[in-house]
Design a protein that fits this description.
alpha/beta; 11 strands; Rossmann fold; globular; 26% strand
């Protein structure tokens, strides 16, 4: 069963060995890596939207070393408690699939039968995601025009990605849960102390969203040890700081041989109201 629907006519898509096809005859090839491109040209704002090859490689390199395992473990624990026997789950803005695949593994290890999909606007990063877990569907798509039917998922995950609330409300079933992961105030503080002369904490706030009920805010925190310049640079290049750091700060970071750094996240858990459209 595919969670995806046609981005051109919204009809259900059927997956074959090499393509996705809808009853109207629209067909979408599955790439060699295993993802499908469901972002129509008129929805693209650039020739290659999202993370470029360098950022995609940095994310894969850093996350593959399990530095963010504390967040993954907390997500798995929460999702296991929120999910039934065969949950339909979407990871919107899934990146290279680290969390998507980890959650799938935790659910199947617990005897569940999840149906999972991940979407991201970057084809470069989905090449890694699709290779990571063949049992999960991955598609190039915008979170603001998700190729999924109304009320088709039981749980939606969004980690550090654009907050497309109207679309999230649309595809999530009534009573389903939405997990929104954001950095806490002191996330990567030691990195920021190197990069900036006057670093400031991230803003933390509770924001109610129309159509959702707040269930909880769950922390995930730890201190990680980066033992080499390569890992420090991989972390730096997967953050927004690499776009807006002064030259002097980037040079200071390049001189570091190792770094102990705090990681701190907040998982905001919402439940869609039964009467929400």
């Amino acid at each position: 069963m595919s969670l995806f629907c046609c981005p051109l006519c919204a009809a259900p898509l059927e997956r074959t060995e090499h393509t996705y096809r809808c009853p109207a005859g629209h067909s979408f090839d599955i790439s060699r890596e295993g993802y499908v491109h469901l972002l129509p040209p008129n929805q693209k704002h650039s020739a290659a939207p999202g993370d470029d090859k360098a950022m995609a490689a940095a994310r894969r390199e850093f996350l593959s070393k399990e530095y963010y395992r504390p967040l993954l473990n907390t997500l798995c624990s929460q999702i296991l408690s929120l999910s039934g026997e065969a949950p339909r789950i979407l990871d919107a803005g899934c990146g290279e699939g680290y969390y998507t695949a980890g959650i799938y593994a935790a659910l199947t290890a617990a005897g569940r039968q999840p149906v999972m999909a991940g979407t991201d606007i970057s084809k470069f990063i989905l090449r890694y995601a699709a290779r990571r877990c063949r049992e999960i569907e991955f598609a190039v798509a915008s979170s603001y025009r998700l190729p999924l039917a109304d009320e088709s998922v039981d749980l939606l995950l969004n980690c550090f990605s654009p907050l497309a609330l109207e679309e999230f409300r649309r595809v999530l079933r009534p009573g389903g849960c939405f997990l929104y992961v954001v950095p806490a105030a002191d996330h990567l503080w030691q990195l920021k102390e190197v990069l900036y002369d006057h670093p400031y904490p991230n803003e933390e706030k509770e924001t109610p969203y129309e159509g959702f009920t707040y269930r909880a805010i769950v922390p995930a925190e730890d201190t990680i040890h980066l033992p080499c310049p390569a890992d420090i640079q991989a972390l730096y290049h997967m953050t927004p700081y690499c776009w807006k750091t002064p030259k002097e700060g980037a040079e200071r970071l390049a001189q570091l041989e190792k770094l102990d750094c705090r990681i701190a996240f907040r998982i905001h858990i919402f439940q869609k109201k039964e009467d929400s459209l």
